[in-house]
Amino acid sequence: MDVNKICLELKEYIENGNAEQASKLTIELINLNYTPLDIINNCLIPAMNTVGDKFAKLELFLPEVIMAAEAFESSLKHIEPLISASQKEKITVGKVVIGTIQGDIHDLGKNIVAMMLRAHGFEVIDLGRDVPVDLFVKKAIEINADIIAISALMSTSLPYVRDVIKLLKEKGLREKFIVMVGGGAVTREWAQEVGADGYGEHFEEAVYVAKKLIDEKKKSAK
Q: Residues with catalytic annotation?
């Protein structure tokens, strides 16, 4: 069997949101000894890059993006157990703690951002919704995260986003973590006002900004 041809088919199934076929072809590639890293780098990431590009050009819409992300996840679940800790560290772009802030139970946008970050090489710990201020900070410390990503769709929850940044400052940890914010209640101007490092209006911008901020952090650490 031609693994390159199967990889191309897998890419197309992910782009089209066919989770069942994506899962099936991933198992097929594994059985043909196509390495997990090759599947990720040659099949999965290119597929999600295409999805992001098409979404930006309005060639795909949100329901189709969700289906593509679910197909990506169905493939990844077969691959992750086969990746060693050292390999995972090499391919991980950065660690992200993400959640919808306290007082807000909306999580669709947050879920999509989490999936798309995973699709682009981030290790993502999703805290869910209605997440207390201190839990963002506690979990970020626990896993030595690079980014704390906070979603807020209700204006009544915005003060809690500000409280996360305030708590980081009080603990002397503000410079340790990149803070990103987004969601329907958040504007670019408000994000700047409260001192967030990054803002994403939609998942594509969130991924771009996360990568950019991680690169800047790595360069400044050298």
A: 104, 106, 157
